[in-house]
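Worked example

This section walks through a single chain of length 237. The input is the sequence exactly as stored; nothing has been trimmed or padded.
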Amino acid sequence: MSTPLPPSWPHCAHGAGPADPIGCRGIHVPGHSVCLAHLTDADRDSYLAGLAPRAEIDHRGTTFTSTLLAALQNALYDSATGIIRFGGAQFEFATFEGGAQFETVTFEGGAQFNHTTFKGGAQFESAIFKGYAQFIGATFEGDAQFIGATFESDARFVAANFCRAWFTRSTFGDIAQFHGATFGEVARFPNATFKHKASFDYTTFKRNAWFKDATFEGGIDFEYATFERNAWFKDAT
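Given that input, the structure is written out below as tokens.
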């Protein structure tokens, strides 16, 4: 039998035992030997109190409840603008157990959600990604809502797995890569704007795909894409 490999970062290991020799894969909170989810209440409050808008966040491998995510975002709330502002954000291999609310959030630096699992809805409506946005290999088990989101740099959803996805009125300012992604149910890109190359090569659309009124200003690639139902491009440019 193969032994699962531990993550490349110092990890929490909470709950490790014979059945799971690695335990919790959450990265250590600076100055502690456990992840954010397994800090004591006092230590968590102290860590969050030390954060400020535009802070660099690294919570790879951590499991978030809706309450824990809200507490982290409250620490990054910019009262002058009324906006939650992340600096660089690393959530690779993290798990969001409840709804992941990132609505109207601004990511000032790169946002990494590679191999992240969203068990509930993922709300990124009107979010702004000023740096690169990476959702490579991410799994969206519920609704993935990027309605009105703005991606100013590269947006990479390579090999991502979507159940229902909304990118209505989203703006992609640079390369948009959906290479090898799978859309299980809804795939909606109406009124989306792609200012640079959009790649949907090897992408699978299991239900209807909507690109009505979408604008493609750069190249677009659907090489080896699979549309199992209808594909709507009415009034696309």
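What to look for: The longest helix spans residues 66-75.
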